[in-house]
Every structure is written in C-alpha cells, then in structure tokens.
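From the pipeline queue, job 12 of 40. The input is one protein chain; the requested action is below.

Action: predict structure.
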Amino acid sequence: MIVCLIVVICVLVFFQSNHDRGVAAAIYASVCGAHSVLFFDLPGEYYYLSAAISDLVIIVAIGALAKPTRLADNLMDICLISIALNACGFTIWWKGLPPETYNLSYIALYLIAIRALLREDCANGFKSSKRNSRIRLSIRSCAEYCRQLQEKKA
C-alpha cells in the first residue's frame, strides 16, 4: 500500500499547476521514491536513519531551491512529522514490536502529502509560516556562509 502511495506522489508531480509547485513536488517525490527503491531492504536501524536523513535532504532542498508556496511549506511540515515518525519506528523496531502502527501512520502521512499535491494555492497569494521562513533563512544563511568560505580559499 505504501509503495502505491509513493507511486501516486511521483505521478502527481506532472500535474502541478505551476513551476514553483512543480519544483517542490519533484524534490519531495524524487527523494521519497529514491529512498523507497534504494533502501527498502536495509536492516531496521539503518532504514529509519536513512529515512530521517532523506527527510532532512528534502527540507534543505526545498528550502534552498523552491520558492515559498503553500505546497513547499506543507511538504516541509510533512518531512518534520516524518522525522518524528521514523524515531518512533526505530523505537518500535528496537523493542521488537510489530510495525503496523508505523506503517499505518505512514499511510496517513502519504495521504496528507497527496492531498497537499492535489490542493491548489490560494488565489490571493500565500504567506509562509514563521517557522518555515526561519528554516529557509537558516538554509540560505548556511549556503551563503559556505560560498564565502570557498571564495576565501580561492
């Protein structure tokens, strides 16, 4: 079921209404799809860690490359929730409990992502939340600092 939802997310990239939404959707779908294909057979502790790292990659990439839209902010929020779910999933795996609750929570999370990909932005524009604006500012500040370091070396 989860694989089917990831396929739907990947297909919905091609149906975004504008370029800005398409960039955010493509980042999210490509990293989620790549993680599900490449890391499916990893042992538990590595799978949950790689999934959380993938979520961080999505947050950084959307913050650096995508323009602020409702979809970009929603996908960043989904990734933050996903990091917490992966921590819970690791705990469930470590205690030897069945993974049904983890799987059901991811089904719900991917359904929320699909809803975000299908929902259009507001006609009167959209202001980013303060949290997501701070995340974007932090990412851009780090990128600018790294660029300045490279220029000093050259």
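Job complete. Residues 70-94 form the longest helix (25 residues).
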